[in-house]
Amino acid sequence: MFYTHTCIQENMSEKPRRQDLITSKTKAFASSLRDGALDVTFENGKVMYLAAENDEVRDKWVSFLNETAKRSLPGSVLKAASKSGIRSENHTMTDDEDESSEDVGFSVSDGCYLTYAEDSDGALRSNWSQQQVEDFFVYLQPTKKVAKFKYTLRGGVEEVKRKVSGPKNKGFYEGVATFIKQVGLAHSCILYLDTKNSPKPFNVYFVHNQTKLLRLKEEEPVDLSLFDAVGCLPANNTSLKGVRKMEVTRFVQHCNTIGCGIKF
Fold this sequence. Notes:
- The chain is 25% helix and 28% strand.
- It is an alpha+beta fold.
- The protein folds into two domains: 4-92; 111-263, no CATH class.
- Strands 9-7-6-8-10-13 form a six-stranded antiparallel beta sheet.
- It is globular, with a radius of gyration of 20 Å.
- The model is unreliable at 1-22, 32-37, 42-46 and 69-104 (pLDDT under 50).
């Protein structure tokens, strides 16, 4: 099952009465959608995380929040997903705002790219670049400052794992998962997959809130800080199909029997 993700933050400087109003409305709305495979996380009365099984449910939720904020909490700041993914710029709502305003979409540019080379019996390499790298299939966009030497040392290229070729070689999946954890967490990254250039088809899975299992959708960016573990499996493996909950340790063990699983 594919999941789409949305992060939402409220301006908590508003009056408590208005905070309580929007909190009660969002909780009621979330409850009415739970049968539609909606997963919502609340923190201190705020909706912080949303996972929905399709874009229609997600868009309905985002529309409700924006409309509620506009009518009940003018000036609140919502960080909502554009239709292309999780990340959009913070936007201040006003009473006279045009509802047709478009979100700022995700762009692939400055960051770290994972690529494959035929040498060394198949090698996975990380590439720090301020421009899109040719033939990448995993992209990590940092959300905090990256040291300049990352882009200049050895041309920004570093080997992640070698000898990953071969149909039964788990090294490829280990390399992908390692890249996501080591580079992604170190620089608080947004992850984006575009696997058409990958030498092997694969799927990436995450565990959120210790038990909730999600599969990353192609070309839909996600914030790695939301998750507790990552797994990389062959695309033709169906062992996690339809599974929506799995404890972190069990998830990592399961993934390591087939591909690779790593706890964050």
